[in-house]
């Protein structure tokens, strides 16, 4: 797989170079033996970049409730997998986490650094490496074996709902034990500070993800997977 190295005029140039090399190692792109393959790879990179940027933007929209702030990040993480598929979703989350790990202010509250993974929210961040692929896996199952239509079918909608609910459960199965361990509190307290306050917001976000997934998953997947239309040669058009 190709690797892209960029130069940054700062003290963190070396870290950024290694991070970018890592990111393009995990990005699900293929060989570029033909212009069509190159165009398909460019589409994947565009979608990954868009969702990584949305996850970053979501971190700046937060409601500070307890040690785990309510943000729009989880909705964008779910949508990354739901709309792009499991590989695209995983790559978008990985891009976001690596950017935060090297110190860029992309985490909730405009902070960054690897030490953030050792905080109460660390488990939720790590869980997204499972959340996005799971949501994408379910959506992939819904779209498997059929053509990408302009609207979703009942089968696809059912898988979108299962993916949204299941991925949200996975987030808490990973995040809550981590929060309990870091804070050194009892399970009852962990549920109070890390789950209960966020149930209404999560329900709203899940409904929004299902609606948006139902509306846009077919279009995004068609953009990602539809063959590139090659333009005819000038000689052919002139004849």
Could you please describe the fold and organization of this structure?
With 239 residues, the protein is mostly helical. It has one domain (13-227): Arp2/3 complex 21 kDa subunit ARPC3. It has 9 helices and 2 strands; from the N terminus they run ααββααααααα. Mean pLDDT is 82; it is low at 1-13.
Major sheet: 2 strands, antiparallel
For the termini, the CA-CA separation is 40 Å
User: Total number of helical segments?
Assistant: 9
What's the rounded overall pLDDT mean?
82
- The CATH class is Mainly Alpha
Nearest-angstrom radius of gyration?
A: 20 Å
Low-confidence stretches: 1-13
Order of helices and strands: HHEEHHHHHHH
Tell me roughly what share of residues is in helical segments: 55-70%
Overall geometry comes to globular
Tell me the strand order in the biggest sheet.
Answer: 1-2
Instruction: Please indicate the count of domains.
Output: 1
CATH T-level topology: Arp2/3 complex 21 kDa subunit ARPC3
Structural class: mainly alpha
| CATH architecture field | Orthogonal Bundle
Write the layout of secondary structure elements.
Elements: H1 13-26, H2 35-59, E1 62-63, E2 70-71, H3 73-84, H4 86-101, H5 122-143, H6 154-183, H7 187-194, H8 199-225, H9 234-238
Antiparallel strand pairs: 1-2
Helix pairs in contact: 1-4, 2-3, 2-4, 2-8, 3-4, 3-5, 3-8, 4-5, 5-6, 6-7, 6-8
